[in-house]
Amino acid sequence: MTQTYANYTADDQAVWKLLVERQMAQLPGKASQAYLDGIKATGFRADRIPDFELDLNPRLTQLTGWRVSAVDGLIPNRTFFELMANRHFPATTWLRRRDQLDYLPEPDMFHDTFGHVPMLSNQAFCDFLAALSQIALRFVDHEEAIDMISRLYWYTVEFGLIEENDGLRIYGGGILSSVGETTYSLYSDQPRRLPYQVDTLLRTPYIIDHYQEQYFVIQSYDQLYHSVPEIEATLEGLLVS
């Protein structure tokens, strides 16, 4: 599939502008510095929906060797992990409507690109994604294993927090593309904020229809990448037990 850029209407561009400006107004002091640096490095603009081939991929390829690949919505596990193991990040090309600004049942292009692509400028994070995907391909036909890997992916790539020098910050794309959860994840007294622990993440179910009940906090992106052997070993141990 390819992104047919000419299909985006003037209203699509206006919705994109609204989404970006609304979210960028609150991300300083809340988003990870790696994400904020990535916004600049990957060339995101409020006044232009990103063109994967003209805007994003030339920059990403130079930065970390990754690319954005257009997909038609949700894709099978094998296809998803094969793309990421080969350093292609799957992204949908459709954008939410004005009446869907605050909630969607499935990810759209704003979530996939604005939420995730800036972090693809960070090498350690990218290496973690590729290595985790290679593990997933080993177990792609094992439903229980994929469920556990999905939990770890959810609580890191989608809803992860990181402790930085200036305090707790967000790096998970599911939070960074959500106006409400950006504030909730950091400041609400309702969710638990737990240290990143592989065994715990693999065992912890996640929520898809409301804000999370817990978030897991890493100390660095190197910590994520260096945990890959532990992920593989723990997964193997849980499947045997």
UniProtKB/TrEMBL annotation:
Pathways involved: Amino-acid degradation; L-phenylalanine degradation; acetoacetate and fumarate from L-phenylalanine: step 1/6
UniProt xrefs under InterPro entries: ArAA_hydroxylase, ArAA_hydroxylase_sf, Aro-AA_hydroxylase_C_sf, Aromatic-AA_hydroxylase_C, Phe-4-hydroxylase_mono
Ranges of residues in domain Biopterin-dependent aromatic amino acid hydroxylase family profile: 1-241
GO terms for biological process, alphabetical: L-phenylalanine catabolic process
Annotated keywords: Iron, Metal-binding, Monooxygenase, Oxidoreductase, Phenylalanine catabolism
Cofactor requirement: Fe(2+)
GO molecular function annotations of the record: iron ion binding; phenylalanine 4-monooxygenase activity
Record-stated family: Belongs to the biopterin-dependent aromatic amino acid hydroxylase family.
Protein's name in the database: phenylalanine 4-monooxygenase
